[in-house]
Specification:
The protein is an alpha+beta fold. The protein contains 20 helices and eleven strands. It has three domains: 171 residues, no CATH class; 164 residues, Hypothetical protein af1432, CATH 1.10.3210; 140 residues, Reverse transcriptase/Diguanylate cyclase domain (Alpha-Beta Plaits, 2-Layer Sandwich), CATH 3.30.70. 54% of the residues lie in helices and 12% in strands. Strand 9 and strand 10 form a beta hairpin.
Length: 591
């Protein structure tokens, strides 16, 4: 599948749905339990009010009740208008009248102390100020006067939750004994009887039962999670194995390329490291960082289609050769795009040589047309190229390379990414990375490009490396180590070839080369123009040694020779072209 994280996201979505489903059940049960607790408290409050109403009706039907006067039950001063409020029995007891309101007030007060349920007889026009309504009761009485029905609400009393219910209290015949003077008539709304029950205990009971239900749901959820995780692991393992198989195949191809080109081996890994550094500094998500890392590891895989003669050339490429190697970006895209697992990085690989100003390849994309991750890789790729020794040039330091990236910001690179990259790569520690031959195979490959096929001496291209103005190549000895140059001109060699045959001429050249190499061990020897030789040496050459060798080998032949020695700092040694032009003039003069 095109997105290797598809299985993970799918299973995560299933897990999320499973969690939301069970969480929905838990929330539903929770609210049902909460509502049931509140309904139960409401019913208990109504039952308490019904009890109070029954007391009131009983007391009213008897015109009140006479009880002994005591500290707990003093004479009611608000009944002083009644002529028979206080009486003395035949046996001398002093009794006082408790009207229904007085009885109900005392009962509800005692009940609240014993059981926590608060009752209150209240009215907007109370005889007794103790029966005056609080703020909630005022609101409830006003609403009840409008609807003539009970009023209930869940509210706070002193910071504690209570369910409060207020039922209307209608004037009956027995009420007129005390309240007739207030102008009430039978059937009028006198006030209300309220009950306030703390709901905390009801919640506790409900939630205790809910704990068992919650435990069941947790166990059920864990079973579901275990099943989902199990199948997620199996699916990801299968997908990972499939992806690993393909990756191993492609990485094997990369190894083949690295086996052909020792520079590319470390290059891909370093570019991947630099890409990750820049991406993290840009605060890119982990998924994209991994995508970028994979792309960096395979960004040069298209070079598998590049001819060895170009890929392995340890020198600057010609315009035609560079045009051919540019095709590796498209070749890599075509290869990766055919594989579902790598299709997501194919576009990054294709665009990693595009330039921000549109002058890159293969499609000439510019600015935001270039994929974001490809823009990052372009900086990392260029940074590694600048900080790596090549045969034809030396590497730059980290600081020099970062200054170059800053200079190219807005032209070759995205200016924002370039700015971040300069900071992210400033701590890079360079290791020894160059293309100098490390083993027999690499030395043989180097010889293929830089050695004369007949004599084994160095050729014109290697001389170009040594004379390059840009010092620092991994193969350059340095001007301080090759201060002298000596030219050896063989004359009449074409006549020798005609007289003795080309094979004899080749053999003579090989013998001369072998003898010179054996005697001049600290010098570099080059064969130029077929029958001319050049020696680069750290010290002036002993011409007697050269004469001894050449006299012995050219004796009894028509071949003649001439020597010329000069310092490498001379103008004619600034380049291969200038040196060849000078030697041609000298050869013609000596002839």
């Amino acid at each position: 599948m095109r997105n290797p994280n598809f299985i993970g996201r799918l299973m995560n979505m299933i897990l999320l749905c499973w969690t939301v489903l069970l969480l929905g059940f838990v929330v539903t049960v929770f609210w049902q339990s909460k509502s049931s607790a509140e309904r139960l408290a409401y019913n208990d409050a109504r039952a308490s009010i019904r009890k109070d109403i029954a007391y009131r009706k009983w007391a009213a039907s008897h015109g009140g009740v006479y009880v002994p006067i005591s500290e707990h039950t003093p004479a009611n001063p608000y009944l002083s208008h009644l002529p028979n409020r206080d009486v003395i029995t035949n046996d001398g007891q002093h009794l006082t009248l408790m009207n229904p309101a007085y009885i109900l007030s005392q009962v509800t007060q005692d009940y609240a102390e014993y059981y926590g349920t608060k009752g209150h007889l209240t009215s907007l026009q109370p005889l007794n100020p103790k029966n005056a309504p609080d703020l909630w009761e005022i609101k409830a009485l006003n609403e009840m006067a409008r609807t003539f029905t009970e009023y209930s609400e869940l509210t706070d009393i002193d910071g504690e939750k209570f369910i409060r219910v207020l039922e209307p209290m209608v004037v009956i015949e027995g009420c007129l004994k005390c309240h007739a003077k207030q102008g009430y008539q039978v059937g009028d709304l006198r006030g209300g009887i309220s009950a306030s029950i703390p709901i905390a205990s009801y919640y506790e009971d409900a939630f205790d039962k809910l704990a068992y239900v919650g435990t069941f749901f947790v166990v059920l959820w864990l079973i579901g999670v275990a099943a989902i995780c199990h199948y997620k692991t199996r699916a990801r393992k299968y997908l990972q194995e499939k992806q690993n198989d393909v990756e191993q195949y492609l990485f094997s191809l990369v190894d083949m390329i690295e086996g052909r080109d020792s520079y590319t081996a470390g290059h891909t890994k370093r570019v991947a490291d630099y890409c990750v550094r820049i991406a993290k500094a840009l605060d890119i998500c982990e998924e994209q960082i991994e995508q970028l890392r994979r792309a960096a590891m395979l960004h040069d895989i298209g070079k598998i289609a590049t001819p060895d003669s170009i890929l392995l050339k340890p020198a600057r490429l010609s315009k035609a050769e560079f045009s051919i190697i540019q095709q590796h970006a498209t070749s890599g895209f075509q290869l990766l795009n055919r594989i579902d697992t790598f299709a997501d990085i194919a576009g990054i690989v294709q665009a990693h040589h595009e330039r921000y100003d549109g002058k890159g390849y293969p499609n000439g994309l510019k600015g935001d047309e270039i994929p974001q991750l490809a823009q990052i890789m372009a900086i990392a790729d260029a940074f590694d190229a600048m900080t790596t020794d090549r045969i034809y040039k030396g590497r730059k330091s980290v600081q020099e390379s970062l200054l170059e990236i800053e200079r190219l910001a807005g032209e070759q690179f995205n200016p924002l990414y370039a700015e971040v990259a300069v900071k992210a790569l400033s701590t890079v520690e360079l290791s020894e990375t160059n293309q100098a031959p490390k083993n027999t195979t690499e030395r043989q490959r180097l010889a293929y490009f830089y050695n004369d096929q007949l004599t084994g001496l160095y050729n014109r291209e290697y001389l170009r490396v040594q004379l390059a103005v840009e010092q620092g190549s991994s193969l350059q000895l340095g001007r301080e180590n090759i201060q002298y140059a000596a030219a050896i001109y063989l004359k009449n060699f074409s006549n020798y070839n005609r007289a003795q045959g080309w094979e004899s001429g080749d053999q003579l050249l090989v013998e001369i080369s072998t003898q010179l190499s054996d005697r001049l061990t600290s010098a570099l020897l080059f064969r130029l123009h077929g029958d001319d030789f050049l020696v680069l040496s750290p010290q002036a050459l002993d011409f007697d040694t050269l004469k001894e060798i050449l006299n012995r080998l050219t004796n009894n032949t028509c071949v003649r020779y001439e020597f010329e020695q000069f310092e490498l700092s001379n103008e004619q040694c600034h380049s291969v072209e200038s040196l060849e032009a000078y030697m041609d003039r000298q050869s013609a003069t000596l002839s």
